[in-house]
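JOB MANIFEST
job_type = single_chain_structure
chain_count = 1
residues = 124
[input]
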Amino acid sequence: MRKHEELTNPSSCMNRARDDEWTFVLLGRDAAAPAAVRAWIEERVRLGKNRRDDAQILEAERWIVTVTAEQLAAKVVAVPGHRKTVCKECHGLGYLEDTPSSPDEPCCNCGSTGHVWLPDGTTA
């Protein structure tokens, strides 16, 4: 969950924490964060607290994919007139021309069609 969502959503993990309960925040820009969340998933399943198909686990898996894509995208060299994208299939990162049909172009890595503009949506 993005910071503003975590703070404003009454059912967020932070808002459900007891006033005297310890909490720990992982930042999306932290290179260790995806591995930490992966370890949390594995431990929750090992302890029998969750199943792999539980909504909480699936949300954590999506978080890992999104954060990893954004971390990698920050390292991609900008191309003028293009926007950062991530492939829906292989999660390959790159830039596509900033046009409405661009997200449907084949991926350079795997050839599948369908890209997602990365959240920042900035034009280089």
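[summary]
The chain has two domains: 1-17+27-75, 77-124.
Residues 55-73 form the longest helix (19 residues).
exit_status = 0
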